Amino acid sequence: MTAVKGISFEVERGEILGFLGPNAAGKTTTLRMLTCYVPPSEGTARIAGYDIFYDSLEVRKRLGYLPENVPLYTDMRVLDYLDFVARVKGIDPRELPGAIKQTVGQCGLDTVKTRIIATLSKGYRQRVGLAQALLGDPEILMLDEPTTGLDPRQITEIRDLIKELGMGHTVILSTHILPEVSMICDRIIIINKGKLVAADSVQNLTKALTKSQMTQINVKGDPQAIMSMLKKVHGVLAVDKKQEFDLADGGNVYVVHSAVDSDVREDIAKAIVEGNFGLHEMRPYSLSLEDIFLMLTNEPTNRRGKSI
Amino acid sequence: MTNVRTIAMRELKSYFASPVAYSVSFFFLLILGGWFYFITVTTLHQATLSGTFEVLGYLTIPIAAVITMHLFAEERRSGTIELLMTYPLDDWQVVLGKYTASLLLFGFALLLTLQYPIFLGLFGDPDWGKILTGYLGAFLLGASFLAMGVLSSSLTRSAIAAGIICLLILLGLRFLSAGSVLGGPLGRTFYYLSFSGQFNNLTNGLIDTRDMAYMFSFIIFSLFTAIRVIEINRWK
User: Fold this and answer.
1) pLDDT for residue A142 is more than 60
2) Distance between CA A264 and CA A293 in Å, rounded?
3) How many domains would you assign to chain B?
4) Nearest C-alpha in A relative to B1
5) Is the CB of B18 less than 8 angstroms away from the CB of A85?
6) B56-86 per-residue burial string, b: 16 or more CB within 10 A, e: under 16
7) Which among A30, A205, B58, B63 has the fewest CB atoms less than 10 Å away?
8) Residue A115 — pLDDT band, cuts 50, 70, 90?
9) Domain range spanning residue B62?
């Protein structure tokens, strides 16, 4: 079975790259290939200039990897485990205590460092996983869904840590949690069904996918009349009603499409007032990452995507 | 070599952090001690370890299976192999490290049995040469069986299945010696492959390079195959 096919992308040094896709899109498989765990049957990749197949050892020396389900040796104590990882990563024995101490501090493991990993909560295991990836100060960090199964506070903490790490490392972050990506990633890559569908910054993707200027308004009154009136306003290309039922304030939310770089807000407002409808709210509407993600991963069947 | 040592140390710690090391040593001593006391000392009144070594020869089969069955199978089941394989380690270092750990644990259990020859020395006059080569034989036999155990463990993600595979292969080899009744070259081949000949020679005080060659090539073959299997598992 082919999990991914023909994916091609680049990551700059010091960049945080968000690696997005629906479940089973091939994110984990791609990361496994990049970390030299699974060899690609076709094609290759270079990490820090080294080929993942022919110079696998050199690649692995520069890599910190946190697999999705955080597989740890649960019968070990946190410090023993980190000591083991530091050694197999080839850290100089003289620098070992310092390196472990630094990582323990960085990942907030001080209070649990002498505990057996099996007795730790999910959040702390995740941190131990992160700590083992960070040991040896690798150039590249690959984190596969690092915040799944954590509570909101732990998620925020892990995100802050990743953001901090992004200052000095190249980070590839796989996830399907979109706000996470808009918050911490410089650039995103979206894959779907094993194929690459987008690779750019969130701003550029928004720009590229926005085919019209959009204004969201909330107006009270008969929807039919409002829509036909709005369509007559000069410069308006289309009007969408966002929901089926009246809101609590008696209004309805519409998205007005107009030509890119045009501004129809004043004309809309004038028309609504002249038509004796109640204007409750007006604001520019831009595509959220959710919209982009749905458009790109779901194009043929998504009505909302088509209408934009 | 540092990497082999690091892996071996981790495995060894995990042996002693779990009941494996203690239960293996316990059964080892229970059965061998029982034989030594009731048969050798009380019944036969002989200052020899021949009988004890013979029991040890059979006992090594399940011991090897128990010591090695989790080594790779458990890593694959729990997923820890994914991290292990993405650390800057060569596959042979991982295999050799785990094998070394199992060998050290077996050696530890063997050391505990040194009390029997000490007793024999205190109360009788045993043939020290034979005891020495007997221990060499026991260690090499263990080393061979453990290597097969490491290979079995690399074949599956179930530790129990790995243990059973190892047990079946080693018992099969052991019972090949029954083929010696066929006589002729075929009978001799069966006997030779079964480890009985090599082990008997050593417990009788005979060090033969052919026996050494067989045991060492068995170890190298098993470990080399295990390394290849680990490599193939990446492609699946």
Assistant:
1) yes
2) 28
3) 1
4) A88
5) no
6) bbebbbbbbbbbbbbbbbbbbebbbbbbbbb
7) B58
8) very high
9) 2-235
A12 — pLDDT class (breaks 50, 70, 90): confident
Contact B87 A88 (CB under 8 A): yes
A152-178 tens-digit pLDDT:
888 888 888 888 888 888 999 998 777
Strand order in the sheet with A170-175: A63-66, A140-144, A170-175, A16-20, A187-192, A195-200
- Residue B5 reports pLDDT greater than 90: yes
Asked if B86's CB is within 8 angstroms of A63's CB, the reply is: yes
By the CB < 8 Å criterion, does B185 face chain A?
Answer: no
Query: Chain A closest CA to B26's CA: distance in Å?
Result: 22
Compute the distance between CA of residue B122 and CA of residue B42 in angstroms, rounded to an integer. 16
Alpha-carbon distance values, B144 to A296, B18, B160 (Å): 57, 24, 20
B145 token code pair:
């069986």
Locate the chain B residue with the closest alpha carbon to A92: B2
| Domain residue spans of chain A | 16-206, 211-285
Q: What percent of chain B has pLDDT over 70?
A: 100
**What's the alpha-carbon Rg for chain A, to the nearest Å?**
25
Burial of A302 (0-12, 13-18, 19+ CB in 10 A): middle
Please give the structure tokens belonging to residue A46. Answer: 């270079």
Task: Return the SS3 of A102.
Answer: helix
Mean pLDDT, residues B205-217 taken together: 91
Segment 71-130 of chain A within 8 Å of chain B by CB: 71-76, 80, 84-85, 87-90
Pairing of strands A187-192, A16-20: parallel
Assess whether pLDDT exceeds 80 at residue A297. Answer: no
pLDDT value of residue B138: 94
Query: Is the CB of residue B17 less than 8 Å away from at least one CB of chain A?
Result: yes
Task: Give the integer Cα–Cα distance in Å for A268 and A266.
Answer: 5
| Cross-strand pairs, A51 | A46
Asked if B1 reaches chain A (Cβ–Cβ under 8 Å), the answer is: no
Q: Flag if B17 and A75 touch (Cβ within 8 Å).
A: yes
Domain covering A16-206, topology:
Rossmann fold (3.40.50)
pLDDT digits (tens, 9 = 90+) for A220-272: 888 888 888 888 888 888 888 877 677 777 788 888 888 877 778 888 888 88
pLDDT number for residue A1: 59
Contact B6 A75 (CB under 8 A): no
| CATH classification for the domain delimited by A211-285, as one of 2.30.42.10, 1.10.3720.10, 3.30.70.100, 3.30.465.10 | 3.30.70.100
> What's the token pair of residue B106?
């077996």
- State the burial class of residue A3 (Cβ atoms within 10 Å of its Cβ: 0-12, 13-18, 19+): middle
Chain B contact present for A35, CB below 8 A = yes
Write the ipTM.
0.89
Helices (H), chain A: 27-34, 56-61, 78-88, 96-106, 122-134, 152-165, 178-184, 202-209, 223-232, 265-274, 289-298, 303-307
- B72-101 residues touching A, CB cutoff 8 A: 78-83, 85-90
